[in-house]
Amino acid sequence: NAGVTQTPKFRILKIGQSMTLQCTQDMNHNYMYWYRQDPGMGLKLIYYSVGAGITDKGEVPNGYNVSRSTTEDFPLRLELAAPSQTSVYFCASSYSAQAGGNQPQHFGDGTRLSIL
Amino acid sequence: SQKIEQNSEALNIQEGKTATLTCNYTNYSPAYLQWYRQDPGRGPVFLLLIRENEKEKRKERLKVTFDTTLKQSLFHITASQPADSATYLCALGMNSGGYQKVTFGTGTKLQVIP
Fold first, then answer.
1. Chain B: residue whose CA lies nearest to A57
2. Which residue from A minimizes the CA distance to B4?
3. Contact assessment for residue B76 and residue B48, using Cβ atoms and an 8 Å cutoff
4. What number of other Cβ atoms are within 10 A of residue A79's Cβ?
C-alpha cells in the first residue's frame, strides 16, 4: 500500500510565486490534515478536512488555501509565496473519531519548500 | 498558556539500556496521548496510543505511562538499539465535537550509542 503520497519532495520558489502541494491517500480515510514543521517548533496544523467538500482552518492558515473534492486528494495551495512559508510540509490522514475514536494519523514524507 | 514540553536536548544512551523520554503538558485536558517516531527526512510514524483512563500501555520493547495528575507521559524503550535512534514526538488528543484535535510536542532526539 502506498499510504499517503506527497509531491513534490523538494521545491524552490521565488517570492510572490504560487504553487500547489499535492497529497493523496489510498486508505479511504475521512480525515486529512496539512502541517508545517519548522526547526524546534513542532508540527503546526494549517488546515484539515473531515470529508470530501468539508475543510476548516487549523492553527496557522494564513497564506494557504485547500480544497477537498475527493476522499483521496487534499491539495494545499500557496498563492503568494513569502519567505516565512519556507518550511517542511506534511500531509496526514486518519479515520474519523466516530470510526473508533482516537485514531492515529498516517503521514506522508513531506515536501521541503524554500522561498527565496 | 497551553504548552507541551519535551526535552529539547538530545538524549544519548548506551545500547542495551532503557531510554526514557518525557512529555509534560500544561493547561490541556487530553482524552488520549500518542507517541510517534520521526526519522530524518521522513514523516512521523505512529507508535502507541494511551487513553486518559489507562495508566500504562506496552508494545514489544515500548512502554508508555500516562499520569493525568502529574500531567505527564513517559515513553520507555527497553534494550535500546542503534536502530532506535530517531526523534520521538508526543501528541495530545482532545475530542472536540466529533473532531479529534491533536497537538504535537516539538520532539526529543534519541541517539543510541553502540
1. B101
2. A42
3. no
4. 12
Cα distances (Å, whole numbers) of residue B25 to A1, A46, A102, A105, B52: 35, 22, 18, 20, 13
Test A41 with B41 for CB contact under 8 angstroms. Answer: no
Q: What nine digits make up the cell of A66?
A: 485547500
pLDDT tens for B7-56 read 878 999 999 999 999 999 998 888 899 999 999 999 999 999 999 899 99
pLDDT tens digit sequence for A68-114:
999 999 999 998 999 999 999 999 999 876 544 568 899 999 999 99
Read off the C-alpha cell for A90: 506534511
Q: Can you name the residues that pair with A58 across neighbouring β-strands?
A: none
Helix, coil or strand: residue A19: strand
